[in-house]
Amino acid sequence: MKKRILIIEDDPVIAEVQKDYLEASGFTADIASHGDKGLALALQGEYDLLLLDLMLPGMDGYEVCRRVREASNLPILIVSAKKEEVDKIRGFGLGADDYILKPFGLGELVARVKAHLARYDRLVGSGEWRRDELTLHGIRIERQSHRVYVNETEVAFTAKEYDLLLFLVSNPNRVFRKEELFERIWGLDALGDHATVTVHISKLREKIERDPSAPQYIETIWGVGYRFNL
Length: 230
Known about the structure:
Layout: E1 4-8, H1 12-24, E2 28-32, H2 35-42, E3 49-52, H3 61-71, E4 76-80, H4 85-93, E5 98-101, H5 106-125, E6 133-136, E7 139-142, E8 147-150, E9 153-155, H6 159-170, E10 175-176, H7 178-186, H8 195-208, E11 218-221, E12 225-228
Helix pairs in contact: 2-3, 6-8, 7-8
């Protein structure tokens, strides 16, 4: 079955070029030229990946990205002419999986679409994502028993380490700021230094990474936060 791509882009020329090239590459693609309409379509759950412009009428791409990410883990690729680092940081912080600058090469666009779909399929499409058990990169989390296995060896985690790991694994490829992780895991009213997040990330890496000094799974996105890679 062909993968379905939703293009949210208000420039009809760019949108049609993207659609034509994606369909020539074996995908099906639909276009929404308005932010609100694009969001409504994205939330229907009928698409496998979202190509999202930022400067849209009605609702900008940042807000679309935020709302889609709250409801779904489908890959979101921002395609924008906004070149400032702050724009990229904001996009990743809202849950985008990739940021492609305009003008872009169509071959590169399709290559990135395929790469993100493959990563998503490895987690969700393969059936590894289960209600009571999560398995990724040899890490198996049993929710009911609160047990964690790394390459089939049980590893002990403190309560907060477990909560942090479960949250990150449950939200792969999304970048979280330190402050956001602190609020999610320790609570909005928790007292403490946000540096505790850094300490706990370090402890997680020691327990799950092959080489904690060169982490592959929990990646530091400099100037933004942390991301658990698929």
